[in-house]
Request: fold
Amino acid sequence: MTPSLTSTKDIAEEVLDRFWETVPPLWGQVRGHIRAAAAEKFRLSEEQFQVLRLIRAGKGSVSQVAAARHITRPAISQAVDALVQRGLLTRTQDEDDRRHMQLALTDSGRETMDAVFKATRAWMRSRMAGFSERELENVIRAMETLRKMLE
Amino acid sequence: MTPSLTSTKDIAEEVLDRFWETVPPLWGQVRGHIRAAAAEKFRLSEEQFQVLRLIRAGKGSVSQVAAARHITRPAISQAVDALVQRGLLTRTQDEDDRRHMQLALTDSGRETMDAVFKATRAWMRSRMAGFSERELENVIRAMETLRKMLE
DNA sequence: TTATAATAGTTTCGTTACTTAACTATTAAG
DNA sequence: CTTAATAGTTAAGTAACGAAACTATTATAA
Reply:
């Protein structure tokens, strides 16, 4: 048996085990925090937070947000609708392609997101205290690798 | 200003940015895959998959699963109920502390989970193809760090 | 040109995934 | 021995989805 092939297989297996014991609890915890921070202070559901976050990050349409979240367009359409009604988002028809609705944060939406991010950042920062620069750099590199795995 | 302090701050900031652009899409994609694989083949919702996964990983009570998922006990209680009715889980009263209900997979539950995991593993493994041993080892180390951040 | 297909978004309707509040049963602590 | 804490459930309501069917618009191709 080829040693390199075998050990590569073992590492893949190891990554999978670590993945299951790390990512779901990590995500669950962040999710729980967002629910507490965003929901209570700003009356934002986690879903609404995610939609606003992605639009803030440059996604400009229902389809783009849906693709990024890996959920269906109707789900995003509904979330967007609520956010427009709450004055956090605008939906304007594109002149060149009138099927396309351009999504954008309002001033109020931007302010809300800044505030939520600030609170979340402070919380996450406190979790990172006590870790060495080396460890954190390593985490950054790992995230790059993981991101490449998403195509 | 202390250089090490400044650069530590910058790294924390960097980790946060990477986190937001990596973890939610990663999790969303895995989630989407679970929905497709577990739901269609085995009629398991994502929530049910998560509950079974945690019990398989050693969580033995509604409270433990709820804590691990960062959601409320009633939510887990209901999910467990459905799984018991479907014959994937057993709920037996603990003799020493009769408030406590011991949760355990049935043979059918174990088989189902093995099958779902096998399918998911194959899918994830295909995503990891093309990455070097070094990169994957780095991911493992990073997951350890992240796990420590969860206490 | 005009069908036809593809794309962007929405509406409707149903199901599932939660939450909060109130409840039972049991054990622990004052 | 009563009060508090813990484990779990039930009930009722809401939000977060998905599937299917629909409108409007643009692209393709006959």
Observations:
- The mean pLDDT of chain A is 87.
